[in-house]
């Protein structure tokens, strides 16, 4: 009887499968974080409208000072959250954008056209509605508030629908929100800057060029980028341009390519493993054999070289942003006196303009722009996605919570009444969009047969490229 040899190692998953598996893990983290974000929003509202309401305002106005002898930076806790923690949020957003442009859903015109057109429509129409409703009252500075989509909340709602939702719709909504974020950052940088101080801005430009040069030179360790990025943030803080823009710019300099490709990784690992086996036959224990410990170090080095620094950073920072930065931001910014000004906050032109822009404008812009580019023959809907799915996603795009709250603070930061009215409009528009979008997708997206539900995908390795970018 012939003995069979050891089973051959399974072939590596094809690139599209690995990208899809990575995307599914990303969606899972976003959707879970969105549900936690909802919980923190409810806590903030309950806290602000309870007997302990004054302690809510007092907490966020506490001052925190960081510095050394002769130099210090003193800000309220609220400002540290909105200027520093949100800088980390925008850094992770920037990593997501770069990854999607290089290897994701925005990496080719054919992939990017539908979500790009949808995002542009979803920004332009809400802005127009806000101007029609609210600009006449002299509050036109809030025009950008209803243009944003909160991807964490939107994907959290999609998660509640489970297997009813095709993966193509999640990809579409994620790519749309990423283009939305690009638009939001450009708006913040160009239209919500204070008086510009050019010297810090020129220093910031030099630091950013240095970070780009570090990438080109093949520097892959995070410490140089962290130090330069911190200095970049400080320069933006002093320049008058909102410092969160530094987070986005810093992310764009992080290397996205791997140092060695998968074939090189497999070959070199196999050589070191063969060497490890030879060392093991000498009878020495692995825990006491210095040469075998050296093999471990070499394989760890190969593992780091086979992963993209961008992928590693995004993977490590995403939980901190989803379960730390964004919930803390919601706690600090979502507190709204629901009975403020005898209900005037809910019927003011600012709140109505924002609410209608989010709940109605987003749907009209996203659905209309998607319909135009698809009917023109320039592109097709994602596989498995129908017009009922696009309608539901277009409504969900009106959940603009995090970015909308952030922009409202920039637009009306010195006027507490207008900030409260903006928050009222954001809550109204986001709640309506979330509930109606969920109902539309639930009623029009039946559960697939059990046998059609795909099994979980295997874990993926980072992008397979050899040169820095």
Show the helix and strand layout.
Layout: H1 15-48, H2 53-61, E1 63-68, E2 71-76, H3 77-103, H4 109-134, H5 151-160, H6 167-191, H7 198-216, H8 222-239, H9 244-251, H10 262-280, H11 290-305, H12 309-333, H13 349-375, H14 387-396, H15 401-412, H16 416-444
Antiparallel strand pairs: 1-2
Word description of this protein:
This protein has 16 helices and 2 strands. Helix 3 runs parallel beside helix 9 (244-251). It has helices at 15-48, 53-61, 77-103, 109-134, 151-160, 167-191, 198-216, 222-239, 244-251, 262-280, 290-305, 309-333, 349-375, 387-396, 401-412, 416-444, and strands at 63-68, 71-76. The protein is globular, with a radius of gyration of 25 Å. The protein has 469 residues and is mostly helical. The protein has a two-stranded antiparallel ribbon with strand order 1-2.
Beta-strand content estimate: under 5%
Strand order of the largest sheet: 1-2
Structural class: mainly alpha
In N-to-C order, the SSE pattern is: HHEEHHHHHHHHHHHHHH
**How many DSSP E strands?**
2
Tell me the span between the first and last alpha carbons. Answer: 55 Å
The level of helicity is: 55-70%
Give the overall form: globular
Instruction: Tell me about the largest β-sheet.
Output: 2 strands, antiparallel
- Poorly predicted runs are 1-13, 453-468
What average pLDDT do the residues reach?
82
Radius of gyration: 25 Å
Number of helices: 16
